[in-house]
Amino acid sequence: MGLYDWRKPYRAAVRETDITKRQDRIDEARQAIERRLVEDRSLAVNVAEFQAIDHALSVLLSLELKMLLGKSGNVRRSEVA
User: Fold this and answer.
1) Domain that holds residue 22
2) If we measure between CA atoms, which residue out of 46, 50, 52, 5 comes closest to residue 28?
3) Can you tell me the distance from the alpha carbon of 15 to that of 71, in angstroms, rounded to the nearest whole number?
4) Quick check: is 67 in a domain?
5) d(C-alpha 56, C-alpha 53), whole Å
6) Residue-wise pLDDT tens for the chain (81 aa)?
7) Which of 27, 52, 65, 79 keeps 20 to 30 A from 6, CA to CA?
């Protein structure tokens, strides 16, 4: 994995409309972010990417909370990094 490769699974999680698949997509996105932060240490995380990761994790948490509360979990376009 390389710089920003975590964004593809993140976008898939945010755009997933099938509620039965959304948690799997969220888990995949989190795993990709973790790989980027832990396994790809040879590629330094710059400030912009760190902020994008922080935002992505917040959005993923928000999606999970909305699912738990029984809301649609739809994400505004501005939340897709």
Assistant:
1) 7-79
2) 5
3) 15
4) yes
5) 5
6) 455 689 999 999 999 999 899 999 999 999 999 999 887 666 777 889 999 999 999 999 999 998 888 865 565 555 555
7) 65
